[in-house]
Specification:
Radius of gyration: 18 Å
CATH class of one domain: Alpha Beta
CATH topology of one domain: Rossmann fold
Strand content: 15-25%
Low-confidence stretches: none
Strand order of the largest sheet: 3-2-1-4-5-7-6
CATH architecture of one domain: 3-Layer(aba) Sandwich
Structural class: alpha/beta
Mean pLDDT: 93
Number of helices: 12
Length: about 260
Amino acid sequence: MMINAASRWSPAEYARHGAFVPALGAAALTLLDPQPNELILDIGCGDGTLTQQIGASGARAIGLDASPEMVEAARARGVDAFVADAQLLGIDKQVARFGQFDAAFSNAALHWMLDPAAVAKGVFALLRDGGRFAGEMGGEGNLEILRRGVREELTERGYDVPVVDPQWYASPEEFRDIYAAAGFDRIEAWLIDRPTPLPTGIAGWVKTFRTGWFDVCGVPAEERDAIAEAVEARLADELREEDGSYRADYVRLRFRMNKPS
């Protein structure tokens, strides 16, 4: 699998610090509009929270994620989930393996997949004619302040920080071009500024959502808590609310499209 090395997840930490992600992602489910008896694939299902909600509509929902730990957490919820790289879905025999779906959904996952053209082609192959794909991901400008704070803190501490952050935060135009090239039509994509409260602060966010980034930069485990706290202090003037809570400067890209009939 061609997994992004910076995408590493702990189900326990995600449940503690990142539960707002599926909670806010539920709005994207309205774009999917799941129907009873449909077969729907949740790409990057995480711990299966939203996959469960898709299934509650009467659809048969199947989750896919590259993290074995998150798939295990999804299965513990009773979700039918499996480990796979969404960048490889378009290769030979994958369609035969998985079957064809009425619809696909993804929330807060596509930006971790650094070969978006391969993802687009794979999703296209897995959908039946007339099938649809909808969801949400990080968009252009996502987390500019938070990402800068993490990068500056690591750089000042002498870590070898890669020049480019390992996420794909697309503009609507770039996103539409990639999915049109894969064969989709009726593609809609738009950005939403969504400042997001962080229940456990910036430090909790850093420890949950940048674990893999710390791996890439070679940050020892015993230094990570202190770095997360330092990033929070560094960004307090920009991201702390009057009541002392913190927010993240999220920008989301929402989308929906169809495979031609």
